[in-house]
Each structure stands twice: as structure tokens, then as C-alpha cells.
Amino acid sequence: MDKRLKAGLGVLGLAAAIAAAAIAYNVIGRRAGQAVELLPAAGRESETTAESRQKAPDFNMTDRAGNNVTLSAVLAGGKPVVINFWASWCPPCKIEMPEFDRVYRELGGEIQFMMVDLVDGQRETVQTGVRYVEEQGFSFPVFFDDRMEGAYAYGIRSIPTTLFVGRDGYIVTGKIGALDERTLRTGIDMIR
Asked: For 175, phi and psi rounded to 5 degrees?
């Protein structure tokens, strides 16, 4: 077989692999059901119309004591909510956690923080999440998405992911990737 034919077949194989990955990505995204598309990142100017606003999907999680908690119950408290999806094995999550804890210690009385550990039962367990939070001395409230309901409801494909939800239950903005303190505070200012 000549070299050009081999190279051409290689390129076709690569293109087929990329197409298969894109299709799989879209299928998984559709399976997420009511996945939320993130709005512009905190700090960007954007017009928000009533039609473009997205209600934050409700989901079940557990607290450290194993009690069931829902987002709707947290929102019933009347405070805006910062939801952060993370895992203890995730390096970018570890980078932003001290920032979240610092801001929580200052603003936790007026903003509800929901640090949601994505528990898959293998790489991440409730025990590994609790151990990490305790070792670091973090004081923010930790919840466990041990049935992956939050991950599916929000179409979480990358962590950390942070959502800023107004007291009315609508998502105001969100960010995929680690946040610095300034960006976190900007998002919080948008939901106050």
C-alpha cells in the first residue's frame, strides 16, 4: 500500500473518531434531560429577558448527616444561592476551595452556599469528600450528589462548575472552571 493511501486512510480514521466523539458528547448532553446552558460568565454585560431566564432545576442531594436535601428547600430560605459542583480529586476544584471558604465566612449569613460533591462511588465517595473538607478546615456547607441528580439536571460535564441563583430561583450566571475570589464576588453581586 502506498504511503499516500495510508496517510489518507489515517486522516479518514481520525475524522471518524472525532465525529463519533462529537455524537457521543451530544447524546450524553441530551440524556441530561433539562440540562442548563450556562449564561455569560460573571462580569460580562448581557441583557436578560424574561424568555431567556432559566429556572434552576430542582434536585436531591444529601448533607453530611445523610439527610435528603433539595435545592427547592434551600431556596425556600429566601437567600440567593451559589451552587458549586466539585470533587476532592479535582485539582482546579482544590485551587478555588479556599476562595469559596473565605467568601463564605464573610457572606454566609446573606448568601446560601451549596458546595455539591459529585459522588460516583468509585473515584469520589462521601467519605473522601468529607475527609478532604475536614482536613482543609473548610466551614462552608457540603452536600453530596450521590445519585448524580444534580450532575444530570445541570448537564455537568466539567468540574468545577459554579452557578449563581437568585432568591427567585432563576439562574443569573454561571462559570465552568475554577473561580478566583474576585470573580466569585462578582457573581454574588449579580444575585444580591
From this structure: -150, 135
Q: 21 and 92 share a domain?
A: no
CB 181, CB 103: distance < 8 Å: yes
What's the whole-model pTM score? Answer: 0.76
Asked whether residue 62 is assigned to any structural domain, the reply reads yes
The parent domain of residue 10 ranges over 1-31
List pLDDT tens digits, range 5-54: 665 555 555 544 454 444 334 433 433 433 344 445 433 334 455 567 89
Does any domain span residue 79?
yes
With DSSP H G I counted as helix, E B as strand and the rest as coil, what are the percentages for the chain, rounded to 5? 40, 20, 40
Beta strands in the chain (DSSP E): 54-55, 60-62, 68-70, 81-86, 112-118, 142-145, 161-165, 170-176
Number of helical (H) and strand (E) elements in the chain, helices listed first:
6, 8
Same domain, 180 and 119: yes
Q: How many domains does the chain have?
A: 2
